[in-house]
Each structure stands twice: as C-alpha cells, then as structure tokens.
Amino acid sequence: MASTLKLILFLLLSFHIFSLVSSHQHHPLDSLTPSEFTLVRTIVNKTYPSSKLNITFQYIGLDEPDKPIILSWLSNSKSKPPPRRAFVIARLDKQSHEIIVDLSTRVIVSDKVYHGHGYPLLTLDEQFAAAELPQTYEPFIESIKKRGLNLSEVVCSTFSVGWFGELKSKRVLKLLCFYIDGTVNLYARPVEGITLVVDLDEMKIVEYNDRLIVPVPKAEGTEYRESKQKPPFGPRLNGAALVQPDGPGFKIDGHTVSWANWKFHLGFDVRAGPIISLASIYDLEKQKYRQVLYRGFISELFVPYMDPTEEWYYKTFFDSGEFGFGQSAVSLKPLADCPANAVFLDSYYASSDGTPVKISNAFCIFENHAGNIMWRHTELSIPEKVIREVRPDVSLVVRMVATVGNYDYIIDWEFKPSGSIKLGIGLTGILEMKGVIYTHTDQIKENVHGTLLAENTIGVYHDHFLTYYLDLDVDGEDNSFVKNNLETIKVTNHSSPRKSYWTVVSETAKTESDARIQFGLKPAELVVVNPNKKTKVGNNVGYRLIPGSATRPLLSYNDYPQIRGAFTNNDVWVTPYNKSEKWAGGLYVDQSQGDDTLAVWSLRNRKIENKDIVLWHTTGFHHVPCQEDFPVMPTLSGGFELRPTNFFDSNPVLKTRPPNPVHWPNCTNKP
C-alpha cells in the first residue's frame, strides 16, 4: 500500500510540475542567462585580448534599468522592453574596471577604472587556487611535519583580511589550515598558529608566520554524516505525505510567480542571491493588483568575530560583498531542504573566466501547510449557540541556501494571503572554532573569547548582522515613513479611576536623519505609508515593519570593522531611491575603508517625505556558542515581517475559502 501511495504522489507531482513553468520572453528584470554571460565574455575578451592581458571577471550581473523606465514599461507591457545590459567588474592589469555591456547592440557602453578604496567580490576560482598553494610551499610543509601531521590530510581555506587603518594594501587573502584525518568536519580540527598571506594578483604566498603550536582537536565526535554515526541513535521521526491532487497552487511564467492573491518576480544575483521584485497583491474589494514591494534583497551580511588575538583579529567578514551570497548558493536537496510539493529552479552566475556556472536546484518554491491558523474565533456569549469559525493558514515560500565557508544560511521569503511578507533567516552549519590547550573549563584563567565546546576546542563569540534592502512602493511610488510613537498619558484630573494609559503620537520623517531608528530606545510602530491614498474611513494606506529580536552592534563606533560596518549602527534607515545605492557596505567591500556605505550616503540628509523611498532594515544575532552547537549547529531562526496596516479596508482573508480536504483510504478527519 505504501509503495502504491508513493507512486501516485510521484505521478501527480510530476505531471503538475512539468506543466507549471511556462515559456516566456525576457522580462527587463530577468537575471542574465548562460548565453548572455557567454556574450559578455566574448565582447570583453575581444576588447582586451587575453594574449596581452590576463582578465578575470569578479562580477557579472544585470545592469537593471532605472526604476522609472521599468514602471513606464509596466504601464504598457506590450511595448518594446528596455535594452538588456550587463554590469561587469573585471580585474585587468591589477586594476578594477567597471564595464557596461549592451547585450542588444553587443558593444561596450562604458569602461572606467576604479581608483577608490577596496576590491571587488572574491571569485571561487581564485579562492580555490590560493588554498592549494601551501601544499608545495616548503616552510608550510616543514611546519606540518613539526606537528607530526600528514600533509595529505591538511586542507586550507581562505579568509578576507579586513582593514585596520592601512592607507594602501595589495589584494591579498589569508589562509588558515585544518586537519581532516578521521573526519570531514574540517573546521573542528584547526591547525592553530600558522597563517599564510596570498597575493591574489600574483597568486603567490607573500607572507608566512608559524607563531605557536597547540594540540589539534580530536576527530572523535566531530562527524556529522549520517553514514558515520554509531549507536545509540536518536528517535526516528515519523514521515508525513503531502499531496495536492489539483497540483501546486502557483504558476511560474518565466521568472514571474503567481499564487493566491500575490504576484512577484524572482531574480538571482551572484552577490545578493534571491531578489524579489514587483510584488503586488490582489485587492478583492477594489478588483485590482496593488503595489507593495518594488525590489528587495539581502544587501549585506556582517559577521565580526570577537577574538582580538593575532590569528583572529581580522575575522570581520562581509559575506555578501566579499564572498557573494549567490555565488555561495548550494543545490537544494528534495524532501530535506524542501518538502515534497516543492518546485525547483536553477540559477547561473559567471566564473572568473566569464563562462556560465549552473547551480542546479538553487531555489525551491512551495506552498507551506504548517498547521498554522490564518484566523479563528469561537463565540460562546450568544445563548444556546456555539459559533466556531477557523481558517487554516497556507503560505508560499521561496527558499535558497547559501553556504559561506562554515555557515549555512537558509533564506526564506514567505508570502501570506493576509498580505504579510515574512522574511526568514536560518543559521546552521559549523561553528568557527579555535584550537586551545584547555580540556576543561577549570583550567581556563584568561579570556578565551568563546565557549569551550570540546577538548582543545573553543567556539568563538561573534555576530551576524543581515541588512535588507526594501524598496517598498505602498500602493504607488511616493511614500512616507511614519513613526507611530506609543506615549504614556497620565490622568491627573480624576476623570477616570485609571491613572495612566498610552496613546499613539504620529511623527512623519521629513529627512533621512529623522528616520534613523535604534530599537529599544522608544516604543513605536514603524510604518511606510502612501500619504496620497486613503482607506474609505480616511487612514493612510501603509505597511508596517514588525522586527524580530533587537540586536545592536557592541563594537566601538571607531573600531575599524565597525567603521566598515557602520550601516548596522541603526536598525532602520530610510533613503530616497537611487539606483546606485544598493549595497549597504559599498560596491567594493573587500578591504574597504567605510567611505562608501549606507551610513555615509545618509549623511546628505536628503528629503524623504512623500518621495520614492527605500527602507533598510538590519536584523541579526549575537552568537554565544554552546555545546549543543557542536559538532554541527541546529538551525537558529530569526527574521521579521512586513504587514499591511490600513492597506485594506477590512480583513483581506475574511472570504478566503479553506483548502478542500483530501481523503485517503483508512483515514479519518473526525476529532
């Protein structure tokens, strides 16, 4: 019987999934295709023949048309779409070139050399090449022998070096190495004390330091592969079958997804990963789609570690701008990363030589039947009546996972019929661990900057700050940012038995400085409103930011990593739309000096009232590692919600019909 059910499920899902994705013409916001990457490579290489110069492609992505052009095209989608262009950052003769390629005319529109601070995105190819250099470097080989380790069991990994006040620096990476004898959990067995510096333009080791020797942590207890686990085992969790006899409730036309009352465009970028654009929701009362979000993505992820010692002080990573969320995307595993009813999509980026690289199953999209309640009420106050109305909740989830070194980041965009968009982030993978001499906490008499997780193993304290770019267009482009402050009113005239209550005092931000918000200082609800649109009863239509737990940066503002990560100094920023302002840490983040960040742009204090504005929100975690995080970390979840606030005239899911029950043999839906 079980095998028959599995066959039915497979056939149903296969039929509907194959018919789900429609063919389409290019949407102006579609990600670049493999053929377009190849075309860009051909055009640039033709301009700079490789026989003379060694060119590497650090970034190739869509040069998206300016917003007014897109909106004009959307108003008449039968018109000719705007020209397709690619934005390229290439390294050529130790310089960074910014190149714009017109894909329709096949010409380079502009080419300028960047002379500022910082370097572009690191490619996987150059990182892999750098990590192989120690295997033939004689001083390193001697250091490994000195420790009694087998060189063939040593692997090295790349680490960005940060910036600590240097006026100029070469384009370099640091290498740290690990011992994999007896385990694949390399981060659990660091070879402490050895640091190598690689010049990426020369691709050679330029500095070497073997400063100290500490024991390499044991391999025992570090394996996480299911095949390597030994009894006793944990409980086996029961499976559940999810079937949709009518097929998935969403449709994909090219990169445009339609589901329930939502419609949006899904893009991919080698740096940002998933990009959600043109999200609009159907208003049943008004009988039309209404704008919510023009464009949204993770702009930067700042991960500073809290160990100031020689081998660790520089570990202050910018995972998007240095390593690329999209470049770090991994193939999702059906029935594990995503449920049985998921549909998978591939994505592409360009390697360092410009050839396209395919990431199979980079995205999954699925309807989430999690057992949640959309709304309910039981009424017991009417004599001789019990009224019970319940609607089960179903949502649509777009998921990608980026593995940046040791950490796996689960990125979810969840759309709800109520109009809410929930942005979820899950942290899992392996901790960054430090080898030490200690085997028990009783031996520790100094600050070790972390938690002793196992013998000779410290999990170092660190932060994760994710900054989202959210170009909200709430029922139109011109919006305002409103702080609905909750203020206590004291009753002093004896007009009520109460002595106090709170009320809402609204404050509209006029300029950027008015919209810099640090959570916890003053209770308030933060709303992006359209002052030009009102509900039937006169409220401004809006969308509210419901944050997760507040995580404030604890580094000094004048500390070098925090200067570069100054965009985390506030939980919320609001800026006027500017096509060039999309990366919170700047366009060139590797070894940047903090002079091209969201914090710097905002100093202009531009007007933002009733303008086309962008909301930037940072969410995150202070991570104090614990033993449960070892050897692999259970997912730590966070996120926030964008929720309609007077956007609709009443509950938009009041008339939502519950899903039809699915009947199976030998099953009952009786309580």
From TrEMBL:
Q: Which Pfam families match?
A: Cu_amine_oxid, Cu_amine_oxidN2, Cu_amine_oxidN3
Q: Where is the Copper amine oxidase N3-terminal domain?
A: 120-216
Please describe the post-translational modifications of this protein: Topaquinone (TPQ) is generated by copper-dependent autoxidation of a specific tyrosyl residue.
Give the enzyme class. Answer: oxidoreductase
Molecular function (GO) terms for this protein are:
copper ion binding; primary methylamine oxidase activity; quinone binding
Residue numbers bearing the 2',4',5'-topaquinone modification: 407
Copper amine oxidase N2-terminal domain residues: 27-111
Q: Which reaction does it catalyse?
A: a primary methyl amine + O2 + H2O = an aldehyde + H2O2 + NH4(+)
Please indicate if the UniProt record lists Disulfide bond as a keyword.
Answer: yes
Annotated Copper amine oxidase catalytic domain ranges read: 242-654
The UniProt entry annotates the active site at: 319, 407
Q: How is the cofactor bound?
A: Contains 1 topaquinone per subunit.
Instruction: Check the record and name the PROSITE patterns matching this protein.
Output: COPPER_AMINE_OXID_1, COPPER_AMINE_OXID_2
Keyword terms: Copper, Disulfide bond, Metal-binding, Oxidoreductase, Signal, TPQ
- State the needed cofactors, names only: Cu cation
Return one Gene Ontology term, BP aspect. amine metabolic process
The ranges of region (Disordered) come to 651-671
The UniProt entry's sequence similarity note says:
Belongs to the copper/topaquinone oxidase family.
Subunit structure of this entry? Homodimer.
Q: Which PANTHER family match?
A: AMINE OXIDASE [COPPER-CONTAINING] ALPHA 2, PEROXISOMAL-RELATED, COPPER AMINE OXIDASE
The identity of this protein, by name, is Amine oxidase
